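Box 4.2: Ligand-aware structure prediction
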Amino acid sequence: MTGTIDIRPLSDVVGAIVEGVDLTRPLDDTTADLLRDTFSRNSILCIRGQQLAASDQIRFGDLFGPVDSGFRVRSGYGGQETRNRGVMLVSNIRKNGEQIGSLPDGEMQFHSDGAHRDIPYAATTLYAIKLPSVGGDTLFANLAMAYDALDDDTKNRIDELQVRNLYGYDDTFREETTEETEPNTSAATHNLVKTHPVTGRKSLYLSRLMTRHVVGMDRGESDDLLNILFDHAERTEFVYAHKWLMNDLLIWDNRCLNHARTDFPGSEERLLRRLTITEWHD
Ligand code: OGA
Ligand code: MN
């Protein structure tokens, strides 16, 4: 038995709120297809107010492609979570001086998860377990809208370019990211304009946190172009700020969105459970 599923916009810019699905149980094929289709067309799904175990989040992630497994190293909240494949905690909580999760503190610049890997993450799911009283919003920038809004000259100029992306573990600001020789930094080259494998729509694919230079371009020229594109991609008309509620589950599409985080008080606890889905190709 399925009740009525209600889908409405999450914002003017991007996303859908889905009501009437119970993610604590396996979904029937019709509902799963509806969620996949809604996700492709809206780039974020927000499902609110459900008590989800890590296993529920993994079952949800499995609907959208191969979930990541096996390399999450930090010990889990209550010793539980890392027994579940691929699950990572995003948290500023420390136990005995040790972080229980990753990306602990404060503001984080715009980025796309996995853009520093040869095979990035198609999507990320994040489930809110503890939230600060203020701040810690996740911002989403719609990079398909940003691409469409470029003038034709700029589109022609960038259509065939590639960029080099760098990321060091737990970096939240560009300045922290060091050169390829640092042990915890990884890097990958990707097309600056990405065609979405499902929708066929073009997006910018670069970010202030990760993108270092345009491949084969003079450094000064590359910096000038990237700075223009970073600013453009972060314009407020392309950005939705998600104010988390407890037990919100979001899935977002890293192939056509960037995300960032606003600052929040270090004196308050924030904890979200994260699971990524690798890009797949038919
Ligand atoms: C992430 C991330 C932002 C946040 O988990 O990849 O960027 O709001 N999180 O914690
Ligand atoms: Mn991220």
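In the box above, the bound molecule is N-oxalylglycine. Residues 142-233 form one domain.
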